[in-house]
C-alpha cells in the first residue's frame, strides 16, 4: 500500500520549484500507480518550471515498480519505465516524485539486463525520435528497413534525442550523417553514424552535401536553435529539396528556409501528442487536436523496446547520477549553463 503523502518537486512563485509533501495520486480508469526509483532530466523540465503556475509537479522520465496495477495486465512490483507530460494540469502529471500515475499502456517492462538508471533515460527522447522519423519524416521503420540505402541528417547527434534517432535510422537502413562537436565524433560513429560533421565548421552544410552526394532529402534537427534549420536547408538536395523536422517550434523562419531552398519543407513535432489530448502549444505544428495515431505508434514502439534494449540494438544514453530529488535544481542549473554534454542526468528517488 502506498502512503497517503509523498515528496515531489513542485513549482513555486519566481519560476522555481521546491521539494514539498503532497498527496500520493490515485490512478483513474486504465491508469497505474508507479513507485518511482529513478528519474531522468530533460531540457523540457526546467523550461516547464519557468512557464507554469505554482503547484505543478515537474518531471517526465521515470523508472520504477508497479505499486497499484489497478486491474491492468501489469503485476504489482514489476519494473517499468515511461514518461509523462510533467507539470500537465489535466490530468495532473509529474515524475519527479516518489509516486507517479500513468496510462497502463504507456510504460514498458524493464528487461533484467537494464538498470533503472538506463531505463529512465530512454522514454521521452526515444519517443521523440520515433515520432519525428517515422511519423513526420515517413522513413521506413526498423521492422521493414529500406532495401536500398538513403541519406538522413541528424543535426545534434549527441543530444539525447539525436542518439536514439541515429540508432533508429541505422535500423531503418539509412546512411546516417550526424553533426556533433569533434570530441564526440568517435561516440557518434560507435552509435552507427556513417559520416560525422562538426557543426562549428563554417562550411558544415557543404560537407553534408558532399557526404550525401547532393542527395539529402530527410533531416531531423535536434537543436532547432541559432539558425540551424536555415543551415540544414543549405545541406538539402539543391534539385529535390527535402523535409526538415525540428524538436522546437519554428516561428517566422519558414520563408527564410524556402529562400535558401525553394523545395524545403519545414515542420516541428512535439512528443506530448502521444497522450492523445489536444495541446495548447501555439507555435508547434501537429498539436491542436487529439492524436490517436501518435499514441498507437508510441504503444507499438513501447512493445518493441524491451527486445531492442536486450539485443543491444538500442543503447541507452550515457548516464550521470546526480543525487536525489533535492539535487534536481542543481542539475537544471548545470544543463542551462551548457555543462551537460552527450549524457543524461539521473536522480535516485527510492
TrEMBL record:
Matches recorded under SUPFAM superfamilies: GroES-like (SSF50129), NAD(P)-binding Rossmann-fold domains (SSF51735)
Q: List residues of the Enoyl reductase (ER) domain.
A: 14-347
Q: Which Pfam families match?
A: ADH_N, ADH_zinc_N
Matching InterPro entries:
ADH-like_C (IPR013149), ADH-like_N (IPR013154), ER (IPR020843), GroES-like_sf (IPR011032), NAD(P)-bd_dom_sf (IPR036291), Trans-enoyl_RdTase-like (IPR047122)
Its Gene Ontology molecular function terms? oxidoreductase activity, acting on NAD(P)H
Keyword list (alphabetical) reads: Oxidoreductase
What family is it from? Belongs to the zinc-containing alcohol dehydrogenase family.
What is this protein identified as?
A: Enoyl reductase (ER) domain-containing protein
Q: Which organism is it from?
A: Monosporascus ibericus
